[in-house]
């Protein structure tokens, strides 16, 4: 599902969700058709601006399955920042937090990622303070490990883990209560 309400080709959009959203709801940040995970939708223009404004550099963490066995050197490169291409122009990413993690317990992906029996995969946690187009995929490719699966785990202090540490089902909608909104401003 695309993280937008307007149609684009044959992809499902938020308008196809089983949940009915108010007309003034806006997605904060985008997930492309090949990515999954946490998506914030809000009608709070101040919050939307705070989270979308690049100078605010709010954190977002991704769990990334890559092709190959990631080395410490690759994690150090990702942490220091790497050169990627954005619209044909070279761009140096800001320093990030990158480290190897055990395979997280996630819902099955549909469609599943490509599987190659003779090529290992590994998982990274990658925390960014910027959001360029397809940045995570470009970063892992720049250090020699193409992204196979990309899951946005958190935005600021909000993560996909519920209070018991469980992962929601694909398509679940959580309403953030007014008492919780302050966490976005911390």
UniProtKB/TrEMBL annotation:
Keywords: Isomerase. SUPFAM superfamilies: Pseudouridine synthase. Coiled coil: none annotated. One of its GO terms (molecular function) is 23S rRNA pseudouridine(2457) synthase activity. It comes from the Bacteria. Signal peptide: none annotated. Pfam families: PseudoU_synth_2 (PF00849). The keyword Isomerase applies. Transmembrane segments: none annotated. Residues 22-142 form the Pseudouridine synthase RsuA/RluA-like domain. Belongs to the pseudouridine synthase RsuA family. This is Pseudouridine synthase. It comes from Dyadobacter linearis. The gene is rluE_1.
